Each structure stands twice: as structure tokens, then as C-alpha cells.
Amino acid sequence: MSDRKPLLRVTRRALLSSAAGAATLAMTPRLFSPAIAQAAPFKVGMMLPYTGTFAKLGQFIDDGFKLYVEQKGGKLGGREIVFTQVDDESKPEAATDNINRLIGREKVDLVVGTVHSGVAMAMVKVARDTNTLLIIPNAGANDATGPACAPNIFRSSFSNWQTTFPAGKTMIDAGHKNVATITWRYTAGAEMIGAFAENFTKNGGKIVEDLTLPFPEVEFQALITRIAALKPDAVFSFFAGGGAVKFVKDYAAAGLNKSIPLYGAGFLTDGTIEAQGEAANGIRTTLHYADNLDNPANVAFLKAFKTRNGKDGDIYAVQGFDAAAMLDIGLTAVKGDAGARDAMVKAIGAAKIDSPRGPLSFNKAHNPIQNIYLREVRNGRNELVSIAQAAVDDPARGCKL
Ligand code: BEZ
Fold it and tell me: Regarding beta strands 153-155 and 358-362, do their DSSP bridges make them parallel or antiparallel, or are they unpaired?
């Protein structure tokens, strides 16, 4: 375990405004009213990985969220938006302390986080216990919108089940009957491979072997050697971030990309494609986004993201952008009065968002209903092949909402 202190960065503006706010309250406690609360900045706590294998993913979520807020002139529902952030390092063991700091010390109005399923589930527990508004901008842990669902918890992303279930049928349709799977041994890996296998075996496929290694290890050689010996029709995988870059390069370096087609959850090649270079060519994945989705919202989003950040947007940036759109809808519905929580939650839950990913709405468990696309890497882009399954709705098993 690292003894590094998690990074907690408070913007100067946020610090000044909260200090000023605290001073005002100390002097005039009885004057505090909903009107003053609505005039005060709305504080968003970003709890994301800014270091480690998922660092780039966290940064893109952060950039996407801030792009949306900037496009609205820094205000949503009439409230100035200020930020504070904590680096969760994708470490579940530090997650409870990290979110408690945002809620207790930083007094945030909303927590946005995170990427890693294990970290997210610790956040969900605290958010439920403290009734803090939480928008999950990536982590797919099924339970967050399953047995642990709650009125104050939303996702702008996906459930792990949702992104890979359609791939089971896609691979059967492509003629692959005997498939090996490979992933990290943690919640997201198990759930994504599990959903793929559910649909794949239901349609007559056979899993020849499930290969795993601990998160976030990247020593793939022995497992790649095992795949070569098994000679499956194809491989289905889940990796993301830095680990995905290394896996795709190692797979190609072993020559397997020429003989055993590589498939995966779209995180394998989203946000990683540039670093993977030629090694990624031909990889097919399923995800709720493709680079060349030809809808006006995506075209505008990609242009604005590139102008702001000098980089191409990806699914993580889209999820951050849409998380801010959800907050906008909630705050606008209550004219900035975040104390009107029930009305805010109702408005977000009923939202129909024209997202860069295509139509986005929410089920009762507050998980997105969205298209899942089949994509193929061509010329350094995750290009749309077809809609693998339209308007996919997570079953929300165990959710009582
Ligand atoms: C997860 O842990 O839920 C996750 C991480 C990276 C990409 C997708 C899902």
C-alpha cells in the first residue's frame, strides 16, 4: 500500500468563496435563508483518479464536465459552479476517507465520481448514509443501480452488464463459437465478462477458458501464451486505461492479432487508441459511443472539446459532459434551490438528453438507457459498424426504487 497522501486540491476561487461564506454565516447566522443559499456558489466535488492506470480517464471526465459548465457561462440553474477535487488513485481502501473529506470538510453540494467500480461502491455507501447527491460518471458496478440504488444516486455512464451483454450475440453472429475471455480480477472485470458470457452461452457459444490477473497488473505474457495454446475462435476482453494500452500492444507483438480476432468492451480502445497505434487496428468492441457518430450533438461536442483541450474527446469526456448536463437539468428545474432535492431528482430522472452518444434517458434505478454500438478500430478511430442493441436498459436486478 502506498503511503502517499491523496491529492486534495481546492480552487483558489472556491476557497475564497467558502471562506467568505463561512465568515458571513458566523456573523449573521439568523440571516441564513434559502435565498442566500441559492445565491451562494454550488460546490461540486470531483472524486476521480488523477494518477495511476486510470489517470487519463479521470482527467477526461473532469475536462468534459468543465467544458459543459464553461459553455453555460460558469452557471447552472442560476448558480455559479465551483470545484474541489480529490485524487482517488483507483484505491478502494482509501475511498471512504476521500469521499468523507469532500462531504465533511469541503461541504460539497454534489460528488461526481468515479472511474473504478470498487471505489464507486464505497462512495455509494457513504452517499446513501449521508443522503449526498452523487453522479457516477463512469464506474459500472452493477450494484450501484441494483440493490444499492437510491434516489440521490445517478449514473451518466453505464452498468457493467449493459456494455457487454450485446457483445455475446454479436460474436455468435460473427461465427465465433469457442471464445476465451481475459480481464482484471475485480468487480468491473467479473461483471463485464459475466454479462458477455450470459448472452454468448445463451446463444450457443462456449467459453473455453476465463483468464484473469489482479488489478492493475500488466504482466500479460503468460496469459497471452495460454491463449496461443488454446487457439480459440476469438478472445473477448475487458481492460481500460494504461493497462489496455499494454495489453493490446502485447497481443499484437505476440502476433495473435493476425490469427485470433480480439474483441472487448469498448474501454479497450476508447481513450487509449492513440497510444496503441497500429496494434489496435481491426479490434471490435461494444460501447455506448463511437467516434464518428454523425449526430449534431457529437459533432459540436468533439469540436468544442478539441478547441478547449487540444485533444480528441472520447467516451469518458462525454460521460463528464453529460453529468454536467444532468446537474443543469436538476438545478434549472428548482431555479437553483438545491434544497428542493425531490424536485431536482425527479427532473433528472425524467430527463431526455440529446447526448453526443445519441438519445440518453434514465430507468427507475437512475441508470442510462442508451444504444450500444459495435465499433471497429480503423485508422486510429473507433468507427461505428452498427447498433449492436438499441436502447439497452439495465435489468437493475435488486433495485427497490
Ligand atoms: C470500472 O471499474 O467500472 C471501469 C473502469 C474503467 C472503465 C470502465 C469501467
Answer: unpaired
